[in-house]
Structures are given as structure tokens and as C-alpha cells.
Write a structure and sequence with these properties.
Pfam families: ABC_tran (PF00005). Helix 4 packs across helix 5. The protein has a domain of 179 residues: P-loop containing nucleotide triphosphate hydrolases (Rossmann fold, 3-Layer(aba) Sandwich). The chain has 290 residues and is of the alpha/beta class. Bound molecules: adenosine-5'-triphosphate.
Length: 290
């Protein structure tokens, strides 16, 4: 579920630069998960651009959101006017056929990209009013990302992977490590702190990625096919963690999935087709969360 024209995040120590989705000065068209800084145990971030939102504003408000790409002189209208509102604490599944615009929408919601038309407010902040640094700050503080392919640093321990977003907030090393340890503990990986990704199963790697998304205490977690690369047992574990995050900590979860069982856990389902919302319904059969 990556954009054809986008690469993975540039990662420190792995041949890339220092910016990524979780940094304070990222760039557009990134694909990767990063998360957001903060404590895995406590609610709310450190305030600022996205920490508290504007007076209890919805997590996302989009009006006629559009995104076109130009590829070799040809324009591709990936999103053609999407209007939606997602409140704090919701659990939403985004569904739709391949190429319908789901990832494009997720990237816009996650401030990894900018719309070519329409307006988007994230926690009450109109993203069009932000320069790239402001957008990166909003992303860093408001949203945690979990992606299908984990995007962990391969030569780096689980603890350091999870602590990484806090580096960009200037959190002191000892505190970074403690918060990362707590985040890993919260996803059942207290016994894997020093393991590198290659020394862990796919399910464990995705749990590390979730811990990294949570370490910043985001109000919203965006997950793009979080179970897509996992066997069914690992997928269930990952979904259990995301469901608990929503029901116990009130974090809004917005996920893209092709899997019915995963979509069944959400309270609301948004169907996207040809860059538009086709259907937006409450999930009558929701059974995963209260
Ligand atoms: N960076 C890009 N440059 C050009 N076209 C793009 C880019 N990213 C996406 N597209 C096109 O935009 C459309 C929507 O893509 P998107 O990745 O959002 O779909 P999707 O619903 O997530 O698909 P899938 O389920 O296969 O991942 C597709 O036609 C795709 O080819």
C-alpha cells in the first residue's frame, strides 16, 4: 500500500537524511510510519500545533478534498472531492478497491501530503495555513502512523526504533528510553527491547511500529493495512492492540483494510471508490470495541 511514486522514509543511520514522518521538518510524499512523541501511558501530547486541537475540534474535517498527481505529463485525480468529519475517539475503517484513493486520503489526513484543492482541518488546524515546518509539527504531535510494511530501522533495536520520534522533540535520552520501554511494554514486547527487526516476527515488528506510533501519545492513529503482511493470529493481536487503544484510551483509530474481519471491528465504515466517498455508514455489526 505504498504510493507508486513515493519512496520509504529517509532514516537516520540507514543512508537517508534525518527527516521522516515523525520529524519536525519533513517533506511531502513520504510513506512510512512514524509516530508521534509522548508517553505511552498518559493521554495527550505535549500541546502545540496538534496536541490539544482547537477547543475540542474534530480530529479531521475535510471539505471537497482533492489530490491530483502529475505523472509524465498525465494528471491522475486520486481524490476528487472528499468531504468528511472524523471526531475524536472514533474507530473508522476505510475500504475500497485498489487504486480508489485510500492511501492518498490517509496521507492527506496524516499531513504527509497536501491537497491540491479543498480544505482540511486536523485537530481544528487548517493545514493550508501551515508551512512545511508547521505541517511537520502538526503531524509529529497529532498523529501516529502504522503502515503495512512496518518501516522500522533494520540495524536498530526495538527500543531505539520506538524512541526515535522523541529525538525530534528534543526529549532527553533517559526519558526517551523510558517512554519507549513503556510503549513497548504496552504492546507486549517488554522482552524484546534489544532485538533488531530481523530478529523478530512480522507480528512483533508491527507491534514495535505501533509502539513507535504511540510513544508520542497521539490523539489519532492512522493505520494503512496494518495487518496486510501478517498471518491471521498476528493480525488479530495487532487489531486487539488498536481496538484497546481506541476503547480504553480514547485514541481515534482510522485504518485502511481489505479484510472484512478487520473492518468489522470498526464502528464506522467509509467506502471509497474512484476518489470519492461512496458510502459512509455506522457499522451495525461492530463487535470488537465498546
Ligand atoms: N505519487 C503518485 N503519483 C502518481 N499517481 C499516484 C501516486 N500515488 C497514487 N497515485 C494514483 O492515485 C490513485 C489512488 O492511489 P492510492 O494509492 O491512493 O489507492 P489505494 O486505494 O490506496 O490503492 P491500493 O488499495 O491498491 O493500495 C491510483 O490511480 C494511483 O495509481
Amino acid at each position: 500500500m505504498t504510493h507508486p511514486a513515493s519512496g520509504g522514509p529517509d532514516l537516520p543511520g540507514e543512508g537517508g537524511g534525518m527527516d521522516g514522518p515523525w520529524t519536525s521538518a519533513g517533506s511531502r510524499h513520504r510513506d512510512g510510519e512514524g509516530g508521534v512523541p509522548g508517553s505511552a501511558g498518559a493521554r495527550r501530547g505535549d500541546g502545540g500545533a496538534g496536541g490539544e486541537g482547537e477547543g475540542g475540534a474534530p480530529a479531521f474535517e475535510a471539505v471537497e478534498l482533492a489530490r491530483s498527481y502529475r505523472l509524465e505529463g498525465v494528471s491522475v485525480d486520486a481524490l476528487r472531492g472528499v468531504s468528511l468529519r472524523i471526531d475524536q475517539g472514533e474507530f473508522v475503517a476505510i475500504l475500497g478497491p485498489s487504486g480508489s484513493g485510500k492511501s492518498t486520503l490517509m496521507h492527506l489526513l496524516g499531513c504527509l501530503d497536501r491537497p491540491t484543492a479543498g480544505t482540511l482541518r486536523v485537530n481544528g488546524v487548517d493545514v493550508s495555513t501551515l508551512d512545511d515546518t508547521g505541517l511537520a509539527e502538526l503531524r509529529n504531535q497529532a498523529v501516529g502512523f502504522v503502515f503495512q510494511s512496518f518501516h522500522l530501522l533494520g540495524r536498530t533495536s526495538a527500543l531505539e526504533n520506538v524512541a526515535l520520534p522523541l529525538v525530534y522533540r528534543g526529549v532527553a535520552k533517559a526519558e526517551r528510553r523510558e517512554r519507549a520501554r513503556r510503549a513497548l511494554e504496552s504492546v507486549g514486547l517488554a522482552h524484546r527491547l534489544d532485538h533488531r527487526p530481523s530478529q523478530m516476527s512480522g507480528g512483533e515488528q508491527q507491534r514495535v511500529a505501533i509502539a513507535r506510533a504511540l510513544v508520542g501519545d497521539p490523539r489519532v492513529v492512522l493505520a494503512d493495512e496494518p495487518t496486510g503482511n501478517l498471518d491471521s493470529k498476528s493480525g488479530q493481536e495487532v487489531m486487539g492492540i488498536l481496538s484497546d487503544l481506541n476503547s480504553e484510551r480514547g485514541v481515534a483509530v482510522v485504518l485502511v483494510t481489505h479484510e472484512r474481519e478487520v473492518a468489522d471491528l470498526a464502528r464506522r465504515r467509509i467506502h471509497v471508490r474512484d476518489g470519492r466517498i461512496e458510502l459512509d455508514t455506522a457499522n451495525e455489526r461492530e463487535g470488537g470495541v465498546s
